[in-house]
Every structure is written in structure tokens, then in C-alpha cells.
Amino acid sequence: MNYIGSKFSILDFIDETIEDFVKPQNNNLVLCDIFSGTAAVGKYFKRKGYTIISNDIEYYSYITTKHFIENNSDITFLKLKKQGIEDIFKYLNTLEGKKGFIYNNYSIGGTKGKEFERQYFSDSNALKIDAIRMCIEEWKGKRLIDENEYCFLITSLIESADKVANTASVYEAFLKKLKRSAEKEIVLEPVEILKTNNNRKNVVYNKDCNELIKEISGDILYLDPPYNNRKYDTNYHMLETIALYDNPAIKGKTGVRCETTKKSKYCIKKEATGALEELIKNANFKYILLSYNDEGIIPIEEIKKIMLKYGKYKCYGRKHRRFKADRNRDYIKNFTIEYIHCLEKNLDSNIE
Ligand SMILES: C[S@@+](CC[C@H](N)C(=O)[O-])C[C@H]1O[C@@H](n2cnc3c(N)ncnc32)[C@H](O)[C@@H]1O
To answer: Cα(209) to centroid of ligand 1, in Å?
Structure first.
């Protein structure tokens, strides 16, 4: 998925930085990815054998991360009287389309003549998304699927729907004409299951990180907060609604959700520095790594100052190509410098 601030393309840089700064003797470590997004970082270190704690304030990220991080073995669908994953997906892919929230609010057919006509999906794809989403909810309601199976199916739907979305990249706007990929019929495809055989308990949360940090501990805390005021709830409102399927009140041309409960301090210039310091201060982790680029709203000098207060500090940097949707904006450079600020925390500083 094309995700603002995704670290997929710099996973090797994060890994090298950990190797150099932390010098892990083995993979018997607990790493917390507290701003999980697409779970790219958690997935990478889960594959390496680390125990993972993940978290994100957005529900779509939580449920998809929960699948990738907490599901450690085969998914069986024992209670559904079908043969297995292939059979389940075949069944869902051949469901008759149904008019539901996505069709009624985000397709031309469903919004024609209404105050705002929207076209985030073709009519037939919107009908299919609704039909599949309703079926998953019905299975859950009848206890025919468990939580692991539910997360796996919702994650598969979110990723498959995103592939046929009629947007330039994020959901803050839709395109006037259906683009080629959006004309294609949606195919629900099973997402990967990351199996582990080390019996470690990986855990995923859906909380504000500054609250969660008081409840957890581990070895490495990886921080990847938003860098600027582009909010994830508006840019990915569609994924949130497919994940929650809660018939939300929506507004305006883009049909974003009206709720404003999840304001992130990391997107607000006046509050971001204070929130970061509080997070670092309360962290019960020996090593803290912060990804932040040179255009973020917290000045680099400020980050250095905060980290130096709590222990040993080192900074690593690498050139990084700009996020796809941002390349069309009026920027001078096509790249940014991605920094990883590292702190070896003096944990005695946790005691006031
Ligand atoms: C830069 S993205 C993380 C990208 C991720 N590392 C990846 O590779 O996909 C920042 C994430 O932080 C989440 N977020 C923002 N404020 C938060 C908060 N206060 N607590 C927890 N998560 C937050 C956003 O929802 C978003 O998914």
C-alpha cells in the first residue's frame, strides 16, 4: 500500500542502524513499533525473530497490524463449512454485489443527484466491497469466525479495495474519471500470513502512544511519528470506514468522517515537541530510535537536545526519495534526508 511516511524502502537502513547502535547479540529482543502504519517495520523484525509490540491510533492500521503481527500460524476457518482459504475467498469473490455504506456514499451510482457526487470506486466494486464486508460481519456475529480469521479477512479486503481505489494515492480526494486500475474488477486476495515457530507472544494495541508507553516495556522502541500536519485520519478515512463499517456521519466533497476524536499531537507544530519529550521520558526501553526527516515540524536541534537529556545520543542519515503523492506538489527537491536519531537511555532517569 502507498502510505504516507512508509518505511518499507528504508528497512535495511533501520536494520543497519540497529546493528550499529544496539549491537544485538541475538534476536531474543522485544521491539516496539509504536506508530505502526502499514506494519512494515514490525513485519520486518518479526521475520527476524524479534518479539513485537505494535500500536497505532488508527483502527485500520490496528486491525491490519493485528493480522500481520499477532497471527503466527495457519488460518483454518474450521467453523465455516468450506474447504479452506481458497474456498472462502472463492465464495466471497462470487458474492452478488449489495448496496451498503460504500456504494451509497462513495460511488457515482450511489451518490447521483445527492449534494456531493463521489467516485472513489466504480459502482460494481463499491457493491462488491459492501457485499464482502457485510458477509464478514455476519460471520463474526454468528461466531463462525474467530478474531484471527476476522482480522485476516478485513486486512485482505482493505488491501484489495485499495488496489482499485480511484484516487491519485491517498483518500483526501478522488479522480474525476475512473482510472484504469479502478475500472478493473476487485479481486479479494488473501494477504500474507507471517508464521513464526518461536512461541513468542506478539501484541498489538490501538491507543495513543503517549498513553500506551506507560504500560509497556522492552528493549528497542522504534518511533515513526507523523512529520507534519497531514493527518492520517483524513488521508485514509476510507480505510477506516471499511475497517470499522460503522455507518459514520461524513461531510463535504471528500466524504471524510466527521469524528475528530483522534487528533494527533505529532501533527501540530506547537504540541509535537512536547509530546515527543513526554514519550521519551516515560519510555521503559533501553534503546530508542526515532525516524524523522529533515522537513519535519520538530527541528533536528530540538530532537538532539531532548535525547541528550536522557542518555547517549547518535544520529544516522540517508537520502530518501519523496513519497509518491508528494512528488507532484510544488517541492524543490525530489528527495528528503531521512534521519534515525538514536538514544541509549539512562533508565535511572525514569525515576523522578
Ligand atoms: C509515519 S506513519 C508510520 C509509518 C510506518 N512506519 C510504516 O512504515 O508504514 C505514522 C503513523 O503514526 C500514527 N499515529 C499518529 N499519531 C499517533 C499517536 N498519537 N499514537 C499512535 N499512533 C499515532 C498514524 O496513524 C500513522 O499510521
So the answer is: 9
